[in-house]
Amino acid sequence: MKNNTILNLTLSLIVISFNVHASSKVHLDHADTDISNTASLQNGAKLFMNYCSGCHAISFMRYNRIGEDLGLSDELVAENLMFAGNKPGETITTAMPEDAAAKWFGGTPPDLSLVARSKGTDWIYTYLRSFYEDESRIFGVNNSVLVNASMPDVLWSLKQGQSEADFDQNVRDITNFLDYVGEPAKLIRLKLGKWVLLFLGILFILAYLLKKEYWKDVKYGIWRPRD
Ligand code: HEC
Asked: How confident is the model at residue 9, as a pLDDT?
């Protein structure tokens, strides 16, 4: 019985380590995103709404929250990010009907609210730049990061009109936006973090002075009352 448990444990560890190796096989480019770069987030939001939201929802996010966090007025949000008929307080869903999507793509395009948390920014950045021609696939493209992906190369038209560096920057902005969507509070958390560390620094000085005060009467490890 005990032997069996050890065997099972060893086998599962081997399987786990194989999986880790399998997933690290694809080389991922460094996304180099910066969540404090508001211009990048604004551009990413705009590109996302234009190129991705037709298929993907980010249903944990609301239009007006983006406006608040990225410093966009209600008019700018309505003009650049919303489609007619949406309300600012609504979550960002997709117009794609689920059953049609299943028929067209063999599955519903996943909600991307948390994709930056599950796959990481490097993965998204590399994935969006890794489509290549493959006539055997239904959309004529395949992807080297997500093999046999059923997503078409939606940024193809964007890529045509610009230099590689500009295109990479645009993909970086979309990735940055998805990183923000995955954890909107990160904007506040990172700013607040510096103050928390400063507070802890000051508290350390006070705590140290207090410790010195308490221990100054203790000599050679034996407590004696002051003379
Ligand atoms: C025409 C519909 C369509 C559009 C537009 C589209 N996608 Fe997709 N996307 C899909 C489908 C379908 C999948 C599922 C692929 C699969 O698993 O084979 C997918 C998968 C993904 C994934 C992988 C998610 C995961 O967890 O596996 C990411 C990331 C992604 N898309 C990002 C984007 C971004 C960013 C855009 C905009 C630039 C975009 N997509 C535009 C259809 C679309």
From this structure: 60
Residue whose CA lies nearest to ligand 1 atom number 5: 52
Q: Tens digit of pLDDT for each residue in 62-79?
A: 999 999 999 999 999 998
Rounded Cα distance, 132 and 134, in Å:
6
CA of 8 to the centre of ligand 1 (A): 37
Q: Give residue ranges with CB within 6 A of ligand 1.
A: 51-52, 54-56, 105, 107, 109-110, 112, 115, 119, 124, 127-128, 149-152, 154-155, 174
Q: What is the pLDDT averaged over residues 196-215? A: 96
- Asked whether the predicted pLDDT for residue 96 surpasses 70, the reply is yes
152-180 tens-digit pLDDT: 999 999 999 899 999 999 999 999 999 99
Q: What is the dihedral of CA 205, 207, 210, 215, to 10 degrees?
A: -110
Which two tokens mark 65? 């929250």
Q: Whose CA is closest to atom 2 on ligand 1?
A: 55
d(CA 19, CA 217): 60
Separation CA 196–CA 220 (nearest Å): 37
Which is nearest to 175 in space by CA: 110, 111, 127, 109?
127
